[in-house]
Amino acid sequence: MVLPTLCSGATQVHECHVQHHSRLRRGFQLLGASPFPSLQIWLPNLGIQVRVFFAVRLFLGFLSVVTETVLVVALSRKFGKRLATYTLAMLCLTSGCFFASTSFLPSSFSMYAVSLSSGLFLLEKPAPAVAVAAAGVILGWPFSILVFLPVTLYSLRRKFKEAFLAGALTSIALLAFSLLVDYYYYKRWTSSVLNLLIYNVLGGGESHLYGTEGPLFYLRNGFNNFNVCFVLALLFVGILPISRKKYVPDLLVVISPIYIWLAFMSLQPHKEERFLYPIYPLICVAASAVIECFPDFFRDRYNPYDNSVLVVIAKVLRPLVLGLILCASHARTFSLINGYSAPLEVYKVLAHHDEIVTDSTICVGSEWHRFPSSFFIPDYIKEVRWIDDGFRGLLPFPFNSTLGGTAAAPPYFNNKNKASDEQYLQDLDACTYLVELQLERPYASRGSDTSKWEAVAAWPYLDREISPPFYRSFFIPYFWQNKNVFGMYKLLTRITK
What we know:
The chain has helices at residues 10-23, 48-79, 81-93, 95-100, 106-122, 126-140, 145-158, 160-186, 192-201, 217-226, 228-234, 236-247, 250-255, 257-266, 280-292, 309-340, 342-348, 469-473, 479-483; strands spanning 7-8, 360-364, 381-386, 433-438, 453-462, 486-494. Helix 5 (106-122) runs antiparallel to helix 6 (126-140), helix 7 runs antiparallel to helix 14 (257-266) and helix 10 packs across helix 11. By secondary structure, it is of the alpha/beta class. The longest helix is centred in the first third of the chain and has 32 residues, at 48-79. It folds into 2 domains: 7-35 and 342-387 and 425-494, no CATH class; 64-339, no CATH class.
């Protein structure tokens, strides 16, 4: 029995939806028996805008490769090939690094800068290390200054004059460039970097509107994205009494931001996974260092060539633990791709929709936070509008050049992140298309009204709230398909009468 998970065309989608709830628990076979839904639609078949989206992602991945290569080479020269090899394997395959490396976010840019700055520091190039740190803070994310602090301070201690001049000149040049860009777009002298810091430090927007989490959120998130690797990274300080000569001070300086950043970010009420991106490469380095030191726990400190039974067992454990980390990471990545790729896949269908309605409006309700990018919106769609599903935070508005372009401060924006009445489309009859996630819930969704809407495309979406935590977090063949519960992520079109 084959369950369609991508359905296009009104008749196929209707049948798919009817069969969905009765068959999904019995199997999760995809159309064409392909285990990867993201491979159903190939890049060459996409519109030019979507190609640009993925081209940007590829370029970001290339930047990540370059910066992490410097870090791995530095580790190899400073601490040996084994530590560098373990780190390389984790950087390539852990789920956290896999997704963070191609995200177009300030925190991802800071992550690139952390890798490059740490590598340059280990290569004993303090001046370039400080210059890269300054670029990561100014061009990336100003709050990541805490992550760069240990490397910057120790570089200044080593070669104060060179490091200070490199950091100062880089900062002045980038801030001046930033001021000019800000002036060009805002038509007045201002600093977006300084404004960001002042706004958040002095209690600006009410970020709790976008959700709050408890103090253990990042610990749980770290384990989900790095599994045992994250636990080992946190244990790095515990191995210092044994490996002090090997890792202190250089590697300790590089890895210490993990603890600083986790402590600082855990104190903030509003938490997001992306906030941890800057320390992702350091987690891989710290865990690799712990694994590399396994034999040192049992080796006679006065006999570096000790090959007792326990030392041999510890050496054998190193590749086994690394293999466990990589397998679990692979399972996590598979789960995320197969369970949550529906928004990307459904929005792709817009470029191939047969019945094009010019000047269309696509409406999004509670799924606003999964809207992938305007690159997925073809030219025949006039605008994307939000509809009120109870969210009380401020959302983006369609750009209105008549108000003064980028230099304007439209009245519907506010500095507290509170929802504006104007951000929602009040006339729902103006919606040509509707994007909606339909789950097994006691209340009816808008798209369930078949007299008004018919589905154009549908894709399964993992329902995390009622799926078992272990099975939804890691892809285990057969169990992942049968233990988890899935909804349908749908693109619907209004029925014209």
